[in-house]
Design brief:
Strand content: under 5%
Structural class: mainly alpha
Number of domains: 1
Largest sheet: 2 strands, parallel
Helix content: over 70%
Radius of gyration: 33 Å
Order of helices and strands: HEHHHEH
Number of helices: 5
Oligomer: single chain
Distance between the termini: 87 Å
Shape: rod-shaped
Number of strands: 2
Length: 187
C-alpha cells in the first residue's frame, strides 16, 4: 500500500513538473509570437469627415438637403394654406364645397408626404454614392499601409472593438493625409 502511494505520488510530482515546464515553454513561445504582432487602428468615420473629398461630399450633400428642403417647404405651405382655408370656411361653405376642399387638402397632404419620402430616399442614395467611393479609397489606403508597415491587423477604431489604443498605433491621420495626396485633385 505504501509502495502504491509512493508510486502515485512520484507520478503526480513528475506530471506536475512536466506541466510547469511545458507551461513556461509555452509562455516563452507565446511571448516571442507576440513580439512579431503589430496592431494598428483607423477611425474611418473621422477619416471620411476630415479628408478633402469627404468634406466636399458633405458640402455637396448639405446643398442637396437645402434644395430639397426649399422645394418641400413651398409644398408644405400650400398644404397648410388649404387646411387653414378649410378650417376657416368650414361653417360657411356648402357641404359639396367643404367636401371638395377637404379632398383637395387630403390629396395635397398625400402628395407632400410622398415627395418628402422620395426626397429622403434620394438623399440617402446620393449619400451612399458620394461616400461609398471615398470609403473604398480609404480602405484601399488602409490595406496598403498595413502591407507597407507589416501590420498583423488594423482594426476599425470607431467601433467599440477598440476600447483603448495608444496614439502611436492610430493610423487615421496617415490615412487622411494619403487620401488627400492621392485623391484631392480628382474630387
Amino acid at each position: 500500500m505504501r509502495r502504491l502511494s509512493f508510486v502515485m505520488l512520484s507520478i503526480f510530482l513528475a506530471f506536475s513538473f512536466a506541466l510547469v515546464a511545458l507551461g513556461g515553454a509555452a509562455q516563452e513561445e507565446g511571448q516571442s509570437a507576440l513580439n512579431g504582432v503589430k496592431i494598428g487602428y483607423v477611425d474611418l468615420v473621422r477619416a471620411m469627415a476630415e479628408c478633402e473629398a469627404g468634406k466636399k461630399a458633405q458640402d455637396q450633400l448639405k446643398k442637396e438637403v437645402e434644395n430639397s428642403e426649399q422645394r418641400l417647404l413651398k409644398q408644405r405651405e400650400r398644404v397648410e394654406q388649404i387646411k387653414e382655408e378649410l378650417e376657416k370656411k368650414a361653417m360657411v361653405l356648402r357641404e359639396e364645397e367643404r367636401d371638395a376642399l377637404g379632398q383637395d387638402y387630403r390629396q395635397s397632404l398625400r402628395d407632400f408626404e410622398r415627395r418628402y419620402k422620395d426626397a429622403e430616399e434620394d438623399l440617402k442614395i446620393k449619400d451612399r454614392q458620394l461616400t461609398g467611393r471615398i470609403m473604398m479609397q480609404l480602405q484601399q489606403i488602409v490595406a496598403e499601409l498595413g502591407e507597407k508597415g507589416a501590420y498583423t491587423v488594423i482594426l476599425e477604431g470607431n467601433n467599440t472593438v477598440v476600447l483603448y489604443g495608444q496614439q502611436n498605433i492610430d493610423l487615421t491621420d496617415q490615412v487622411i493625409q494619403e487620401h488627400n495626396k492621392r485623391f484631392s485633385q480628382q474630387s
